[in-house]
Amino acid sequence: MNTDLLRLREDRVHGLPTYPVSIYEVSETDGKVLFDCHWHDELEFILITEGIVRVQLDISEYELRPGQAVFVNSGILHGAFSGDPAGRCSLYSVVFHPEFLASRNNDILQQQYLEPLIRNQFRLSPIFRGTTDAEQTLISHLQAIIKTNIEQEAAYEMITKSRLYMMLALMLADRKPTSAPSRSEALRIERLKQVLSYIHRHYQEPIRIKDLAEELNMSEEHFCRFFKKMMKRSAVSYINEYRMQQAKMLLTETDSKILDVALQVGFDNLSYFITVFKQHHGITPSQYRKLHA
């Protein structure tokens, strides 16, 4: 199974053209980030299986525990972080393209349910804690989807599609029209996406606060306040966390020397790279590589 949700980006293809569904498993034992903030056109359900996980959806944050789930709509900025850095956290993610549920004809399902859902025209709770019968049923469907895809049971594609319909039906049963987000809120989210994209494109290079502020046409002071408010951490902390995630992948997936890994993730000083890595993971890059060999 693919365990690399860290590479999940808006331009990634999930599943196959004939079956656009992917199941991802993510575990974290030595850091804070399960997967970093990103967004994509697909819909997504996330099931927490171990530990305490903080899930960010746009500018809101939720704490979830094992057996609880979250729905991520198309285009929503989202990330998952350890709620207990000293403990292990695990989750499954089911990512699927809305076209998988689309009808060949523009029928009532498309017009009244799917299209308004994708356009965020319904006021829906994205969090399912299992406190109602409907939420318990939805979580059971999600668990069954994960199991049937992992084991590739007979007709698992059809089972997955039918259960996704049931899950959305449970969600939409209590739907209410929602007003569009305020212009200022929408602008803040778009600006955040813009600066995160900049960081993801340039993390291998030196990144100054001045560069990020200029990207959004803000003063450095205004930018720092904006980023801290939106991401609950400083831009420097986020950049280092993102670089550490990329470094972990290089350490486990390549034979590159530690110095080369440092250079590839934007550090021109090996000693500083080792210091930052140890601050995030409690061990040196060499120890991490041996541990995950």
What report would you give on this structure?
The protein is of the alpha+beta class. It has two domains: 5-172, Jelly Rolls, CATH 2.60.120; 183-291, Homeodomain-like (Arc Repressor Mutant, subunit A, Orthogonal Bundle). The chain is built from ten helices and nine strands. The protein has helices at 108-118, 133-151, 156-172, 183-202, 209-215, 220-231, 235-253, 258-264, 270-281, 285-291, and strands spanning 21-28, 33-38, 43-50, 53-57, 60-64, 69-72, 78-82, 89-96, 127-128. The strands form two sheets. The chain has a five-stranded antiparallel beta sheet with strand order 1-8-3-6-9, with helices on one face. A four-stranded antiparallel beta sheet has the order 2-7-4-5. Helix 2 runs antiparallel to helix 3 (156-172), helix 5 packs across helix 6 and helix 7 (235-253) crosses helix 10. The chain starts with 20 loop residues before the first strand and ends with a helix. The model is unreliable at 1-9 (pLDDT under 50).
